[in-house]
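User: what does the whole thing look like in 3D?
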Amino acid sequence: MYEQAVQPTKSPGFLGEAGAAEGVRAHDLGKRFGDLWALRELDLDVAPGTVLGLLGHNGAGKTTAIRILTTLSAPSTGSATVGGIDVVADPGGVRRTIGVASQQATVDGLMNARKNLVMVGRLHGMPKGTAVARADELLERFGLTEAAARLVKTFSGGMRRRLDLAASLVASPQVLFLDEPTTGLDPRSRNELWDMLLDLVRDGTTVILTTQYLDEADRLADDIVVLDHGRTVAHGTPAELKAQIGNDRVDVTMAGAGEFPAIVRATENLASNAPSFDEAMLVATVPVREGVRLVDVMRALDAAGIDPVELDRREVSLDDVFLTLTAPDDATEASP
Amino acid sequence: MTTATAPPVSRPDSRALVHPPDQTGGVRGWWRDSLVFAGRNIEHIRQIPEKLLDVTVQPLMFVLLFAYVFGGAINVGGGNYREYIIAGILLQSLAFGMTGPATSIATDLTEGVIDRFRSLPANRIAYVTGHYLAELAGLGLSIVVLLAAGLVVGWRTHTDALHIGTALLLLLTFASAMIWVGTWIGLKVRTPDAVMGVGFTVVFPLTFLSNAFVPISSLPNVLQWIAAWNPISVMVAAVRELFGNPLSPLVKHTWPLEHPVVAAFGYCIVILAITVPASLRRYRVRTSD
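Assistant: Here's the predicted 3D structure for the full assembly of 625 residues, as structure tokens:
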């Protein structure tokens, strides 16, 4: 299994500077619960010091993938290594290599912030003094020094997340796993967390994060794997994915369903991909080419004699990604 | 996709350079991690001191209730009821001790914090054994409080230090057995709320259908048989015998009640032999997906 997961080297320059550092590899990883496959045939090859974004809706298999890679769950098929260590053969070794911040902030509400971090350090095998010093250092870094002696259950969502991230960094992990790190955060806390993550990556940490937000994956990830119903539906750099799914969308709300073919014809030269159609809402979604303006769409529709009820230009959403990447023939069915 | 290098060296060699030696497998790692988890539970008690009421104030109320309210109405056949009742209340309090670990473990399991522990390189069973150590400290405190209260209301011992020591050892062994029963329940139930129901529907009938508060001879015939075989009766009788407190007359001649000390230790060992491995197995199953 291990031999399969290790592909021939392509960038031999790396070993010299970071010793035996390795990222994360997975081959044919799958997890079955009864008859349901939560994850199927996941292949990953994450270089050290890079960020992989696992993108998908709830239930797409993101958390399952993270749980397997962090040794919380055993894979039904396939194999994976984290920092070069096999997750099934040596879970203890993996646990010494990783930091995990999961979807629910997994800190102890009935202890104060400092004691939470000291406990994590102690469970990493640190002597008490080292654990306390490390806790104070992280509290400082995450702006929690003032709140260090407060019970964690009194923390706001953003503070809990920050403490959770701090807890995952206690042992300076080589590989950091973050399961939807910004879900439920206000925009400011979200930006702060993003900056902290980018700092970590700059220092050489490998990060795997899951997200439901396209812009988050775009901003943070070097590579994106899009999961849908447990399967990988797309895989590439943000730029590659954008090239596949196009740029902005224009939603054309029409008076009657019969206008859809005319809209498709009228926007043919402006669209990067085939428009999709939500019959229930009478909305045609046109993926527009780079540089196309809303007025261009308006003129094209007007020239074809179409008078839309509503016209709306917006950024690509995760739904659009799936509409484009999953089979186009059932696009209307998958539309919300 | 990104490219990564696979070091041509074999894995064990490259790992030895990067990772600290495994400290989680040995007895020392287990003990140290258990103490860290026990410290966490004790920290919880510091934050919510009410948690201790169950094992301190509640038993005290039982002592006062039975010593001054019901005591006058219960005839134990010549003995002093206040000396009679202390063993009963001790055993009931320790039996209720199972709800402590059950509640806290069930709570941890429904919250995400257990995932944090499992993703750390800590000893695998230290979480469960740490709970045991903290709960045993709590129940030890409960024993001290109850015996002190007993001394105040007129309870005395009438045996030598060896017997008293054996009685204390039996109480701690019984406490351990109840903690492991509670641990197993906590790993089994779906929500922490279910624990109190289980505690009341099991512990109350068990302690009241025994010699803990009234002599078995005062019960109807069918209940006399149940009480005579009830392990709680045996524990209570053993503690009374070891402290030299009044024993109610033996109306049903069952082997355990005729040899209460041996039988009491035997019951505890059987309970531990079942619940300790069952709990550890359950912990692995409950936290492996």
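In plain terms: DSSP finds 13 helices and no strands in chain B. Chain B touches chain A through 42 residues (CB under 8 Å).
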